[in-house]
């Protein structure tokens, strides 16, 4: 994870007081525009979907809206598995499962297609930042509602001063950088 961590520290910028006063937003757009840095973080996140011998141990990668889409889709490709988007309420056509939860600075509802994850499928959740853990907990509920099993969480950055890791329970969490 050395190259991934280096890229994150070099290419992610802090934006104070966004989206509201007191919040420091982690802007990943400079990372996305750097092909070597972006490739390093995709490789680092994909490692969470492999065992010690490098074998893929997940059936799907689930990315949470919106930056989880940006990093999750290439992770799914790197692993050779399908990608499942978890969206904000009202954004998916067809039957969905929904879960409402608290954010660091508000509330939200997430949805997933009822047939996006088959019963028994093993999934890796991928997102940009692990903060309070509300998004991870809500997404785990959605995967369980489909009959799937969350076997790992992989994020670019974990905010160490917030309790996000605790919400993952016994599911392993891989953070490429802890800030």
Automatic annotation (TrEMBL):
Keyword vocabulary terms for this entry: Cytoplasm, Glycosyltransferase, Purine salvage, Transferase
EC class: transferase
Compartments in which it is found: Cytoplasm
Phosphoribosyltransferase domain span: 42-158
Keyword Transferase appears in the UniProt entry: yes
GO molecular function per UniProt: adenine phosphoribosyltransferase activity
EC number: 2.4.2.7
UniProt pathway annotation: Purine metabolism; AMP biosynthesis via salvage pathway; AMP from adenine: step 1/1
Catalytic activity: AMP + diphosphate = 5-phospho-alpha-D-ribose 1-diphosphate + adenine
InterPro entries for the chain: Ade_phspho_trans, PRTase-like, PRTase_dom, UPRTase/APRTase
Source domain of life: Bacteria
Subunit and interaction comment: Homodimer.
Homology family: Belongs to the purine/pyrimidine phosphoribosyltransferase family.
Function per UniProt: Catalyzes a salvage reaction resulting in the formation of AMP, that is energically less costly than de novo synthesis.
Protein name listed in UniProt: Adenine phosphoribosyltransferase
């Amino acid at each position: 994870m050395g190259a991934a961590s280096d890229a994150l520290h070099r290419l992610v910028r802090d934006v104070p007081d966004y989206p509201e006063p007191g919040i420091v937003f982690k802007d990943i757009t400079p990372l996305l525009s750097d092909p070597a840095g972006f490739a390093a973080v995709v490789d680092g996140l994909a490692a969470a979907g492999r065992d010690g011998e490098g074998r893929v141990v997940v059936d799907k990668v689930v990315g949470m809206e919106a930056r989880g889409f940006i990093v999750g889709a290439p992770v799914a490709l790197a692993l050779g598995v399908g990608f499942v988007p978890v969206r904000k309420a009202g954004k998916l056509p067809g039957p969905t499962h929904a879960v409402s939860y608290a954010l660091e600075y508000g509330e939200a509802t997430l949805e997933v297609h009822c047939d996006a994850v088959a019963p028994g499928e093993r999934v890796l959740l991928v997102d940009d930042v692990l903060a309070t853990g509300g998004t991870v907990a809500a997404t785990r509920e959605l995967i369980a509602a489909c009959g799937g099993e969350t076997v790992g969480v992989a994020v670019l950055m974990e905010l160490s001063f917030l309790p996000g890791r605790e919400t993952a329970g016994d599911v392993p969490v891989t953070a490429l950088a802890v800030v």
